[in-house]
Amino acid sequence: MFTKRTFLHGHTNSRNAQAALRGELSGVKRLLPFLGPAFIASIAYIDPGNFATNITAGSKYGYLLLWVIAVSNLMAVLIQSLSAKLGIATGKNLPEVARERLPKGVSFFLWVQSELVIIATDLAEFIGAALGLSLLSGLQMPAAAVITAAGSFAILELQRRGYRSFEAVIASMLLVVVLAFAVQTFMVKPDFGAIAKSLFMPRFAGTDSILLAAGILGATVMPHAIYLHSSLTKNRVIGRNDHEKKQIFKFECIDIVIAMVIAGAINMSMLIVSAAMFHVHGLFIEDLTTAFHEFNAYVGPVASFSFGLGLLIAGLSSSSVGTLSGDIVMQGFVNMRINLYIRRAVTMIPPLLLIVSGVNPTSALVTSQVVLSFGIAFALVPLILFTSNKSIMGGLANHRVTTLLAWIVALLVVILNIFLLVETLF
């Protein structure tokens, strides 16, 4: 899967990383060899499912639930740091450690449920990208889906050129989404006083707002990002002892904070734009197509174009990352692997069938988030157990406070997702 160029790029980065660990580099140059993994993982935090929940929350409750995004992002920083640390400490990803430490039947079950979760995630991402292209171009959804499929294969091909090329393209796509929502935020002129109040005064407004908060959390904390991050860090820079591994982890924490701050800012911008644009005018928007047209009607074509472009790029990039995650969980849990292009083709079948059948894209996005919520506990619980185990982690084992915080986060995530499932299904 990787070419000679991939090896040379990896060798150069490893040489720079070792120089950084020895203190031969300073400033930004010392950090650069370690940047990248968190940016790929963070793409999962701005997929089209986030568009649906954030636009709905902003239009119905204004700025009220901004604090939920902020808290979700803090949780994400903790969770992704544990995943990255597992890869650094063990040289293995989370599914590989699970296969070694858990009974074979349990490992097989974890693989099956993770594949189902990734399929549900990919459904949201692919449909979101196709919808974004359809809104921008005026193409019918089936035609937009075919072009989206070609685009996702092209991004996947970048992995053959090495992880640095893949990281650079994903980071560039993330920048496009940032700029798209920066333009929208500037154009809708939000109430910054209300934003500050909502960020620092946690509150709800009835059961429906709690349900939306659970949806925001479910769309933010992504199981496949947990599996993925441990794989991205496991052999990227290899520490020869606990001291070097701790240094690598410190650099990776900076990578995580930067990437998660960007992802959080994008999610907040979605909700802020929706609040300033729709809630102020008494519009309750649950459909992304409607949101696109309302942006055009109230603000103008630049705002609607920015929204559609953000949706397209977020869907394409997160879909490619989802395919990579699927490869990781199969290899890790059951020690099997299939060609990434075959995997990509197979996972595109469900969303293509839904698009051809005429299912409402936004409804499909929301339903996929419910399926997604099933998998969060199955990724979080093993992650906390393994990273708290000194025999696995050595000197990078969790501090007691870290373990306590992680269990609190896991419990909160599980309770909110059970609430989301019950409310949605019954």
H/E series: HHHHHHHHHHHHHHHHHHHH
Helix content: over 70%
Q: How would you classify the helix and strand content by structural class?
A: mainly alpha
Describe the main β-sheet briefly. Answer: none
List unreliable stretches of 5+ residues.
Answer: 1-9
The beta-strand count equals 0
Instruction: Give me the Rg, rounded.
Output: 21 Å
Number of helices: 20
**General shape:** globular
Strand content: under 5%
Q: How confident is the prediction overall: mean pLDDT? A: 87
| Gap from first CA to last CA | 46 Å
Question: What's the SSE blueprint?
Answer:
Elements: H1 4-21, H2 28-31, H3 37-42, H4 48-61, H5 66-90, H6 94-101, H7 104-137, H8 141-157, H9 163-188, H10 192-200, H11 207-220, H12 223-234, H13 242-277, H14 288-298, H15 301-334, H16 340-357, H17 361-373, H18 376-387, H19 390-393, H20 400-425
Helix pairs in contact: 4-11, 4-13, 4-17, 5-10, 5-11, 5-12, 5-13, 5-18, 6-15, 7-8, 7-15, 7-16, 7-17, 8-15, 8-16, 9-13, 9-15, 11-20, 12-15, 12-18, 14-15, 15-16, 18-20
Descriptive account of the structure:
The chain has 426 residues and is mainly alpha-helical. The chain has helices spanning 4-21, 28-31, 37-42, 48-61, 66-90, 94-101, 104-137, 141-157, 163-188, 192-200, 207-220, 223-234, 242-277, 288-298, 301-334, 340-357, 361-373, 376-387, 390-393, 400-425. Helix 9 packs antiparallel against helix 15 (301-334).
Q: How would you summarize what this structure contains?
A:
By secondary structure, this protein is mainly α. The chain has 20 helices and no strands.
Salient structural properties:
426 residues, 80% helix, 20 helices, 0% strand, mainly alpha
